[in-house]
Amino acid sequence: MKSIVLTLILILTLSLLAADSMPDFRLPNMAGENVSLTSLLGEGPIIIDFWADYCQPCKVAMPYLQELLEKYEDLKVVLISIDAPRAQNRAKNYLRSRNYDFISLFDPERSLASRLNVSNPPHTFIIDQEGEIVYSHVGFEPGTEKVYEGYIRELLGIEDEPERSQKEHCGSCTDHNEEEER
Question: How many other CB atoms sit within 10 Å of the CB of residue 48?
Answer without folding.
Answer: 25
